[in-house]
Amino acid sequence: MIKALVFDVGETLIDETRIWSRWADRLGVPRGTMLGLIGAMAALDRPHGHALRLVRPDFDLEAEFEAWRNDEPSGLRENFDADDLYPDVRDSLAALREAGYQLIVAGNQPPQAAGALKAMALPVDAIHTSAEWEVEKPEPAFFAKVAAVAGREPAEILYVGDRLDNDVLPAGRAGMRTALLRRGPWGYLHAERPQAAEADLVIDGLADLLPALRALAAGG
Known about the structure:
Elements: E1 4-7, H1 17-27, H2 31-43, H3 49-55, H4 61-71, H5 89-98, E2 102-107, H6 111-119, E3 126-129, H7 130-133, H8 140-150, E4 157-161, H9 164-173, E5 177-181, H10 184-191, E6 201-203, H11 209-217
Parallel strand pairs: 1-2, 1-4, 2-3, 4-5, 5-6
Helix pairs in contact: 1-2, 2-3
């Protein structure tokens, strides 16, 4: 029986459109171009950061972060806030908590993301990041941490994310149940791949999760 639900962050809870649009403005390219390049990275199984290097081949991420902080010390820059939450997040989490599930947020995120997520006062039991744990998905140690903080056997945990490579497949190898969320570039593309069949659930939004879990528990 599934007792705990663990959620990825980017394109699961957080819509990254504004983040990539700000990067486009920063690098001086049209926003549509940047978003298109992000989609291309998803299709090519390449990291997000490669899109920035396509625009600027000599791009140095840390140097750009530092320059951006100096230029816009009070701006969001590469970060997010509550305005970036997908519209279904709060109500869906509240319904899942009301149904008795333990809810945890755990994803690959930089140090400042934990504070940003906690400031949103989401109806969850805990928030953790890869920066805090010093290990990133898809490393097995990340999913071992997930099980440890949940205090559950892996089979009692459902990991929810938008990617096969970082979420569904490694969580499944760790013995967890999995849900693939069809949103964001990776979500739509990965849902079309044969390996999507390895997910216990494929859903179009978080509002679909509770009915899907009830059907799963009933053997539907």
